[in-house]
Amino acid sequence: MNSKVSIIVTTRNDNHGGDLLKRTATFVNGLIFQCTKFSLKAELIIVEWNPPSDKPLLKDVLPSPPNHCPLSIRYIIVPNELHKKYRFQDNIPLYQMIAKNIGIRRAKNDWILCTNIDLLFSDDCIQFLASDAMVKNHFYRCTRNDVPKELMDFTLVDDQLKFAKKNIISKHGSTSNYKYINIPIPRVLYFSTNLMRLIDAILKFINKGKFNFYSLDFDACGDFTLMHKDDWIAIDGYVELDLYSIHVDSMGIISAKALGMEQVCLPAEVCTYHIDHSDGWSGFKDPVDLVRFLCKRPGLDWYTVCEAGKYLVNQRKNWNLNNANWGYLDKSFKEFIFEPGKQIQEIN
What we know:
Blueprint: E1 4-11, H1 20-37, E2 41-49, E3 71-78, H2 80-83, H3 96-106, E4 111-114, E5 119-121, H4 123-130, E6 138-141, E7 143-147, H5 157-166, E8 170-172, H6 193-205, H7 211-214, E9 225-228, H8 229-234, H9 248-258, E10 262-265, E11 271-275, H10 287-296, H11 302-315, E12 334-338, E13 345-347
Parallel strand pairs: 1-2, 1-4, 2-3, 6-10, 7-11
Antiparallel strand pairs: 3-12, 4-9, 5-11, 7-8, 12-13
Helix pairs in contact: 9-11
């Protein structure tokens, strides 16, 4: 097992969704434990965008890797001065996909996983990342399982994972069993393997001109998209828009497919566990509440993204909305690096 992976997330110490610091610490602790357990050589890049002035930086409050751990942790600090250039700076305190692009452009390893800070990875997922099974010109997706926040009541990562497996609230994403099912299907149908295979085959047969698009697994793709760094560079990372980040993660998947990369939906056991919290995309009390939310944070609607995406996939074109400097490649940010067995290093 020789794979080296850069795991990229972004966040800020503002308690978004409640218990944010606790969720982030659970995420970091899980990675430290599992990277050690499965000898995964990795760097975790935490892009701290527009940190609140009245809170400590995350480097000062999150766990650091012990001497025997093969995980290093890098904090890249994006200052408030840069955030202020955006139109919706007051209502969007974190530009998630632009922040992840900053991590992508600065990642040191061959493989880059863009994910989020309120997850645990299954042991099978970490073992896959530690293997040499990944292939260039492919992008990898896995299922996200939502689990209760009581997971954080357990101290040991193994106990957290046992709780997660037994207490799944909902599932998001395709698996390698049914590659072409990416439409809402009643969960009761999942109990009939033969019926699911039939639906899968029908979807493959019909509407062939648009089929390459409909086979894409967009569901919760912001929680797990894995590609070789060369492939991230080829698609220009995520589209950088001065808008709320809804659907921008899906636009990255579209770019990869349009440029000829092959989607791989990993088996169901190679999954993530998402810690349920308030203020998530599914946490609105009613549809009108969602409208109020989006009025303050304008973003792209799915119809527009979908129609443009079909065109790009069929024409084999990229969005071409980013400039060559995407991810602020020409800008230096303050950076802090925790490496096992070493003192923290500051890079200006």
